[in-house]
């Protein structure tokens, strides 16, 4: 029998990818295509769901073609995705009623305030693990129902359905209007504000508060089981789709962080630190989210603490696209290395408010500490340092909540190719930073989930054996200098707060 493979569809914030993996967890081939970032107003971020689906089909073809493989070589399909981005579409026509509203979008703040009322943003946190925030999918559905003509009536008639982008891809991949499967997994469901973390069921009372018909919601399944097969009009027809994990949980799974106290940090559009709390639901006292890590078939549910940082890699994109001081993302390191330090400049990229551990929707970005001495090299360095400073804030919160300080940080994602960033990360944390051989751990985690469900891999021990260290950065910064830099960073953060008020219209 010829060698077999697993394919992962990684539907991310800026692009969609298809990556084929072999049994050792190594990348065989990749297809990738970016989609348009749509900014209709300040604070609004949208994607075109139909463009995303077209791109997914295209990148599957790219990956198969590059590896000279067909569907017969693929044993299963895994899906991973940008988690809180909401799509609402007509199940009879397959047409979205509005663009996908992206996780970074802040337009729903008035809905958050209305729902919070006198009880505050932690109104549902004991049940769903999340504070009320524009970040999560629930308020985005409400906005669509309240602002798209006829949407509420169509939803109440049972014609409209909702999904995060895993569900949108799965529904289309399994036939769309011709028998498409309307399913999500527990990790994505835990990012809506509607899922009871204990029972893994949608909460009727919370749905009633939001005014969202339960008929819109997908069926909740585990992260690793056969949901269905690709439809006859797909290049992967009849191949089982057998794994779904939200992108950050997928990256944790790909990092083989399966045990209590293990953690990873993904450097993507934003940064996301996930700390495994095993089968225990741990309530954060320090601004972290309680979320579901994974659930394999009928196995126990594994939970996690998460620190979500809204703007990290997208800050580098902003330097490229909005300011034009670099032509490509890798150039930020070259520019940053033209200077020895940040020149006193600190960049707090609160473009969508501040996420963990602050949760301040009223914050907006600030570049502070400027003098005539500061040049574009210092700004590039301040941008990279901002990624590391924000990570330290969240790691401090993880250490406080868990009571067990991290001794090293496993990292993955696109920005981990940046040595300058990762050395500064180790310096400001005071612990080693470790990158695996396969940095595409998000797609790998989805592949692992799918391969476990179809017997391609037999156990978590198989997956642990695949993990290999690529490079390690040791801290070498003086403790007094570390403290000084971090003190100034925290001062800079205070300058971003209380910006959005009744005098500042979004």
Topology:
Elements: E1 5-11, E2 15-21, E3 27-34, E4 46-47, H1 49-67, E5 74-81, E6 87-90, E7 100-101, H2 109-116, H3 125-128, H4 137-147, H5 151-156, E8 160-163, H6 165-173, E9 183-185, H7 186-189, H8 204-210, E10 219-221, E11 224-229, E12 240-246, H9 247-254, E13 263-267, E14 271-278, E15 289-295, E16 301-309, H10 313-323, H11 331-336, E17 346-348, E18 366-368, H12 376-402, E19 409-412, H13 419-429, E20 433-436, H14 441-453, H15 460-466, E21 469-473, H16 479-494
What proportion of the residues is helical, as a percent range?
25-40%
How are strands sequenced across the largest beta sheet? 15-16-14-13-19-20-21
Query: How is the biggest beta sheet arranged?
Result: 7 strands, mixed
Integer average pLDDT: 94
User: What is the structural class?
Assistant: alpha/beta
- Please state the CA-atom Rg, rounded to the nearest Å: 22 Å
Strand runs, count: 21
| Low-confidence residue ranges | none
Beta-strand content: 15-25%
Number of helices: 16
Describe the global form.
globular
| N- to C-terminal distance | 60 Å
Task: Describe what you observe in this structure.
This protein is α/β, with parallel strands linked by helices and 506 residues long. The chain has 16 helices and 21 strands. The chain has helices spanning 49-67, 109-116, 125-128, 137-147, 151-156, 165-173, 186-189, 204-210, 247-254, 313-323, 331-336, 376-402, 419-429, 441-453, 460-466, 479-494; strands at 5-11, 15-21, 27-34, 46-47, 74-81, 87-90, 100-101, 160-163, 183-185, 219-221, 224-229, 240-246, 263-267, 271-278, 289-295, 301-309, 346-348, 366-368, 409-412, 433-436, 469-473. It has a seven-stranded mixed β-sheet. Helix 1 (49-67) crosses helix 6, helix 9 (247-254) crosses helix 14 (441-453) and helix 10 packs antiparallel against helix 12 (376-402). The longest helix has 27 residues, at 376-402. It is globular. The model has no long low-confidence stretch (mean pLDDT 94).
